[in-house]
Amino acid sequence: MKTVKGKFETTETMVSALLKEERVGVLTEIDIQITLKEKLNKNFRKHKILGACDPPFAFK
């Protein structure tokens, strides 16, 4: 896990682009803010979990 400062949307875009450069794809995305609101009716800060995969490595 890595914590960075900056706008959430900008950071999310940057992380996705960097993963793509490394030929790593985002297979899943969990929006914690939305999930906690829907399931528990709780407000939470912007927070996402990206499930990344390197296909050749995963195949091995």
Automatic annotation (TrEMBL):
Coiled coil (residue ranges): none
UniProt-listed Gene3D superfamilies: TT1751-like domain
Transmembrane segments: none
InterPro entries noted in UniProt: DUF302 (IPR005180), TT1751-like_sf (IPR035923)
One matching Pfam family: DUF302
SUPFAM superfamilies, per database record: TT1751-like
Domain DUF302, first and last residues per copy: 30-58
Identification of the protein by name: DUF302 domain-containing protein
Species: Winogradskyella thalassocola
Lineage: Bacteria, Pseudomonadati, Bacteroidota, Flavobacteriia, Flavobacteriales
